[in-house]
């Protein structure tokens, strides 16, 4: 690196490999590296470098990202360095949004009406469903939808070539043809069409992109065939491409992402400068190690080196819980514990719960709701999908583009105009038969020029005429004025629409229970439109640069752009934006979490059937999904698995095969003790200031449990051997017992578990007796332990200095001498072997040694004060499970069957004792425990089935009632009408 480069602010924050990638003069640069190695950071820096150092105009750069969220973040990062002006000019967005911009500007050259609308997923599904129904096709509409999408995604060549292996169902082709005809008639493009038509445009009119000097693609591993074509076409003028990607994170196979695109790139651009980034800046060493162990099970994968920059940190956890409900409760308790134990350093915003499928969120949401913790959903229910917002959007679509049959069909009877579903269906069919739009047909009917086939009663016609047609026609005029007259804005238009529909009144009558909330959503929608109008003052940001001799249509309809923005912003939710300001927990699907990171990550439901998903076709892709989820974590990673899943009335599940082979070796069974070295390690990874012990302690609530011990570490399966259940399908046979405490709800049905009336938020010191050690408190360390740690750290520091002296020789070729060729990279194992033991190991930094030494001392200390390990016995003797209380006079206390060998029974009652726990014997403390300090679950206290001695005795007449209490209650009852006695008693911990 030259001296000037060293001073350059763009390059300062980069390591050598990243710098090389940013400054490479090669026309094609491929950066392939593992998660957290700074790929996105490098790509952003390269954009800045190209603008500042090579004289590229921002408007001549195309940057394609995979999600709207990623595009927004990258824009922000670039804007910070280059300023808002430059940032706006860069053509940056998802493939779909970039394609839309080109199609609205130049689409007329390929015969596209520039006012095309976008059919979102819901629209496409509805159209296909109608076609299948009309023709009685024996195909699943969902399958037909993805079949059509795949066909389009593969590009025109694949579309023409028939599938030889599997003969195609002729109905599918027919469905495809009709679907496409429908979209054309309605002047709609679906998501796939945006790409397909853009490819067509750029092939036929390359002049549209003659200005493009550089094309940069993020998350390249998830591009599909058509996106690859598009990338090449965008770059056709200068052939200057930079891609970043990680084959291990390819998780969009179902969307036709093609891992083969990596090979294609190297084949099509043989001079590609190959750069691999090997340092992982995101996660602790233990998180990285265990994630690599998961991904390395895929023997066919592309091997690559990923070295941790951070210290070992807390060991990732694999927690077993009894049921999904218990899993949700445990997650809540662990989040609370972490946030509390780190003082102000961590907030709820630092926590993400990543799910294989959105449907798994029910229990988690219920648990968070019960605990009053705010959360936001990514990939969940979207703001734009709310009923009231959809209605308004459909009206706006109809105003902008009356030929949008689907929008018209959905609003024809909203608010109610007395037009039933059958009539609407007939109208649609009539329009389709006549090959005219629904709007034209309605006009014909209402103008009296068509009457025969559809029996719309005159009254309805009048209503349609005065309401729907009038509203839409009037507002169409106003919509046109928006662009010509600045006095009229999009917000005015929406307000007028609301008043003409009397929308508030409509919501009140239609949704009496939650109309206020819905009206609030409408207000939010208005403010969203207002923001859009304000930003549209910078209309130019969407404009593509003028190119000589190529006509461009100015996309100056604010309404049209607003609607396109809504259709493409499928994962940018308005409610998210609001929530982002507050410290809230994130619940996300793993797919939507791509490219993001959080200090604390939970991955629940790690069982076969969930991940890998029962319907998944590609197991390797499922493994990669788990890998993506795990590598989102910076400091603390938790996986969990219930004994019974939430689907199918709680069927028994097995731990995911992706983790089961090494579960006990690689994971801790419960959350780490947050002692000072662990806290300091996390602070270092996150680059945050750790509050003092005093400050942390001051904020801890009284009776707060500092350990992850509210739930049993090894939950007991209480169902019978065959998993037999009674007729209800879930509740086990046998007498109902009083629940002992809130731990392990596995033998209850899920609902019952969710509706538990009371749940303690803490455990008492006494319950902690067996594991209450000073070392488990944050910050505690004995002087001896501290001394040992200091000397270990000093030794490690010396070692580190010696290692730093070994410098790496730079090669003279494009590729760094110590980096494997990209082809080698994607085909053979790297020269640098993975850390021994499947990725466990690697160089210990001084911090790690310090931590290890410190925690060893702490563990030794703990061992000295630890109560003896007690045999794990069920809280209630199993033989008693079948015991039934006789309804009559069997009021005697059931006799506990004494076990010969139960010598420790006495010890199990220590919860009732105020004496300190007995010291541990000469028990060895393993090295492994030193860092993680697993805490045994508290033993269950004494339990019995007894009814009170008093009742028992009184009913036998064995005890005299004290005089002052009056006559026995039984006598009184005889005189009064019978009133059942109901006591709502919390399930009390005993
Ligand atoms: N040279 C560096 N020095 C310090 N931190 C860095 C460096 N490069 C990247 N980082 C940090 O590492 C983290 C991960 O970076 P980034 O998101 O760019 O990684 P990525 O390779 O794109 O990850 P993924 O593939 O998982 O999306 C970020 O917090 C980033 O700021």
Description:
The longest helix is centred in the middle third of the chain and has 27 residues, at 458-484. The protein starts with a helix and ends in a 15-residue tail after the last helix. The relative contact order is 0.11. Helix 28 links the parallel strand 15 (598-603) and strand 16 (633-644). It has 990 residues and is an alpha/beta fold. Adenosine-5'-triphosphate (ATP) is lined by residues 13-15, 18, 33, 35-41, 246, 249, 281-282, 595, 597, 631. Keywords: ATP-binding, Coiled coil, DNA-binding, Helicase, Hydrolase, Isomerase, Nucleotide-binding. One of its GO terms (molecular function) is DNA binding.
* Strand order, sheet with most strands: 3-2-6-7-1-8
Radius of gyration: 33 Å
Number of strand segments: 16
Name every ligand kind in the structure: adenosine-5'-triphosphate
CATH homolog superfamily of one domain:
PCRA, domain 4
**CATH fold-level topology of one domain:** PCRA, domain 4
Mean residue pLDDT: 70
CATH domain class of one domain: Mainly Alpha
Shape: globular
Task: Return the CATH architecture of one domain.
Answer: Orthogonal Bundle
Q: Which structural category do the helix and sheet elements fall into? A: alpha/beta
The largest sheet is:
6 strands, parallel
Instruction: Give start-end ranges of low-pLDDT stretches.
Output: 570-581, 720-790, 804-815, 820-990
Which bin fits the share of residues in helices? 40-55%
| Helix segment tally | 38
Give the end-to-end Cα distance, rounded to a whole number of Å.
Answer: 68 Å
Strand content: 5-15%
GO biological process, one term: recombinational repair
Keywords: ATP-binding, Coiled coil, DNA-binding, Helicase, Hydrolase, Isomerase, Nucleotide-binding
InterPro entries: DExx_box_DNA_helicase_dom_sf (IPR013986), DNA_helicase_UvrD-like_C (IPR014017), DNA_helicase_UvrD/REP (IPR000212), P-loop_NTPase (IPR027417), RGS (IPR016137), UvrD-like_ATP-bd (IPR014016)
Protein name: DNA 3'-5' helicase
């Amino acid at each position: 690196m030259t001296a000037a480069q060293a001073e350059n602010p763009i390059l300062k924050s980069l390591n050598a490999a990243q710098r090389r990638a940013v400054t490479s003069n090669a026309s094609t640069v491929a950066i392939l590296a593992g998660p957290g190695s700074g790929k996105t950071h490098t790509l952003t820096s390269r954009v800045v470098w190209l603008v500042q150092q090579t004289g590229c105009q921002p408007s001549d750069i195309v940057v394609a990202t995979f999600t709207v969220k990623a595009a927004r973040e990258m824009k922000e990062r670039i804007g910070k360095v280059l300023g808002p002006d430059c940032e706006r000019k860069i053509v940056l967005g998802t493939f779909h949004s970039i394609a839309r911009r080109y199609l609205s500007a130049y689409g007329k050259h390929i015969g596209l009406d520039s006012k095309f609308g976008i059919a979102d997923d819901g629209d496409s599904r509805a159209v296909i469903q109608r076609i299948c129904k009309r023709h009685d096709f024996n195909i699943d509409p969902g399958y037909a939808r993805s079949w059509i999408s795949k066909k389009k995604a593969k590009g025109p060549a694949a579309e023409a070539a028939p599938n030889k292996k599997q003969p195609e169902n002729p109905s599918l082709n027919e469905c495809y043809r009709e679907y496409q005809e429908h979209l054309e008639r309605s002047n709609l493009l679906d998501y796939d069409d945006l790409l397909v038509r853009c490819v067509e445009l750029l092939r036929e009119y390359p002049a549209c992109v003659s200005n493009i000097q550089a094309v940069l693609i993020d998350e390249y591993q998830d591009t599909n065939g058509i996106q690859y074509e598009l990338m090449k076409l965008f770059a056709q003028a200068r052939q200057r491409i930079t891609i970043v990607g990680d084959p291990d994170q390819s998780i969009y196979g179902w969307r036709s992402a093609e891992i083969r695109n990596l090979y294609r790139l190297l084949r099509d651009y043989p001079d590609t400068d190959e750069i691999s980034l090997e340092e992982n800046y995101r996660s602790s060493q233990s998180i990285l190690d265990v994630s690599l162990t998961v991904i390395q099970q895929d023997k066919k994968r592309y091997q690559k080196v990923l070295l941790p920059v951070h210290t070992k940190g807390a060991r990732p956890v694999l927690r077993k819980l009894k049921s999904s409900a218990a899993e949700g409760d445990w997650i809540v308790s662990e989040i609370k514990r972490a946030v509390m134990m780190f003082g102000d350093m961590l907030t709820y915003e630092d926590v993400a719960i990543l799910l294989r499928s959105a449907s798994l969120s029910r229990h988690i949401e219920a648990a968070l709701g019960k605990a009053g913790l705010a959360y936001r959903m990514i990939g969940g229910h979207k703001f734009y999908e709310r009923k009231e917002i959809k209605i308004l959007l459909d009206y706006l679509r109809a105003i902008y583009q009356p030929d949008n049959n689907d929008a018209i069909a959905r609003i024809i009877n909203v608010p109610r105009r007395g037009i039933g579903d059958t009539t609407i269906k007939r109208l649609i069919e009539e329009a389709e038969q006549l090959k005219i739009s629904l709007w034209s047909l309605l006009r014909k009917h209402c103008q009296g020029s068509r009457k025969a086939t559809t029996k719309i009663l005159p009254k309805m016609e009048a209503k349609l005429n005065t309401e729907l047609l009038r509203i839409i026609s009037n507002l169409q005029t106003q919509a046109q004025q928006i662009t010509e007259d600045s006095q009229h804005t999009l917000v005015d238009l929406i307000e007028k629409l609301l008043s003409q529909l009397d929308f508030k009144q409509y919501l009140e009558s239609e949704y009496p229970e939650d109309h206020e909330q819905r009206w609030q959503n409408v207000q939010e929608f208005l403010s969203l439109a207002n923001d859009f109008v304000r930003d549209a003052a910078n209309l130019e940001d969407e404009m593509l640069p003028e190119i000589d001799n190529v006509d461009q249509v100015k996309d100056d309809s604010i309404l049209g752009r607003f609607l396109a923005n809504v259709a493409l912003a499928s994962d940018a939710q308005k409610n998210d934006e609001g929530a982002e300001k507050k410290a809230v927990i994130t619940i996300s699907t793993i797919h939507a979490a791509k490219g993001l990171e959080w200090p604390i990550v939970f991955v629940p439901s790690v069982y076969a059937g969930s991940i890998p998903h029962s319907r998944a076709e590609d197991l390797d892709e499922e493994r990669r999904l788990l890998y993506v989820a795990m590598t989102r974590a910076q400091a603390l990673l938790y996986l969990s698995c219930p004994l019974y899943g939430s689907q199918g009335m709680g069927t028994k599940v097995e731990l995911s095969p992706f983790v089961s082979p090494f579960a006990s070796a690689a994971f801790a069974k419960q959350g780490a003790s947050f002692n000072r070295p662990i806290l300091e390690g996390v602070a270092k990874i996150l680059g945050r200031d750790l509050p003092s012990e005093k400050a942390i302690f001051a904020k801890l609530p009284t009776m707060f449990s500092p350990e992850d011990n509210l739930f049993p570490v090894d939950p007991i399966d209480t169902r019978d051997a065959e998993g037999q259940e009674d007729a209800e399908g879930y509740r086990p046979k046998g007498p109902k017992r009083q629940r002992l405490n809130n731990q392990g709800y596995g033998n209850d049905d899920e609902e019952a578990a969710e509706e538990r009336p009371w749940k303690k938020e803490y455990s008492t010191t006494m319950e902690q007796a067996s594991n209450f050690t000073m070392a488990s408190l944050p910050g505690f360390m004995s002087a001896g332990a501290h001394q040992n740690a200091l000397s270990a750290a000093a030794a490690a520091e010396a070692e580190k200095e010696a290692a730093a002296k070994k410098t790496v020789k730079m090669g003279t070729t494009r590729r760094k001498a110590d980096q494997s060729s990209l082809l080698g990279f994607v085909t053979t194992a790297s020269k640098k072997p993975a850390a021994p033991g499947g990725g466990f190991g690697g160089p210990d930094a001084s911090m790690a040694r310090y931590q290890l030494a410190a925690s060893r001392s702490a563990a030794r200390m703990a061992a000295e004060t630890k109560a003896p390990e007690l045999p794990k016995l069920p809280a209630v003797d199993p033989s008693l499970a079948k015991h039934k209380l006789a309804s009559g006079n069997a009021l005697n206390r059931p006799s506990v069957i004494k076990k010969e060998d139960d010598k420790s029974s006495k010890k199990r009652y220590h919860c009732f004792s105020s004496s300190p726990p007995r010291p541990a014997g000469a028990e060895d403390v393993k090295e492994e425990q030193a860092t993680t300090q697993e805490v045994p679950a508290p033993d269950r206290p004494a339990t019995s089935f007894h009814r009170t001695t008093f009742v028992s005795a009184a009913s036998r007449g064995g005890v005299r009632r004290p005089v002052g209490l009056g006559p026995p209650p039984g006598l009184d009852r005889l005189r009064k009408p019978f009133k059942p006695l109901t006591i709502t008693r919390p399930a009390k911990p005993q």
